[in-house]
Amino acid sequence: MKKVCTYLQALLLVSKLLYRGADAAAVDENGQTVLHYATKREFVSVAERLLEFGASATQQDKMDRSPLSIALNNQHDKLTALFISHIDNSEYVCMMVELSFHASE
Fold this sequence. Notes:
This protein is mainly alpha-helical. It is 57% helix and 0% strand.
């Protein structure tokens, strides 16, 4: 049986690993980063910490999903706002918003 990480456990573990030099942009076999998983669980503080250490809200996995698109599709408003605040290219944000609306139809 798998043990599920609580919000606080995840924040402490991610912080410890990042301060010890872990790569915030590392991907698993599906092309997902820790930010993808934090977004799915709606772990806002974990996402903030990952962004501080260079994680990208626009990095796509093998199924072309980014943390930003996951947040948009799941109506995680705090994460969406956080990710948008970390993106410089407003054209990309507009494109992702449009794609998310089409995907939910």
